[in-house]
User: What shape does this take?
Amino acid sequence: MPNETATSENVQGLVRQAVRYLYTHVRKLLGSGAAEFFKAAGDGPS
Assistant: This one.
């Protein structure tokens, strides 16, 4: 999937793969960003 160009023939499959990736990794992706945000704000765990 990385660096793959979407075409009219494969766009549906690429969207499904991306959605599946985000769905399975969203907690990790958002969790690390949220931790950095709260750390910078002085409200999170050190």
In short: Helices lie at 11-41. The chain has a mean pLDDT of 78. The radius of gyration is 16 Å. The longest helix spans residues 11-41.
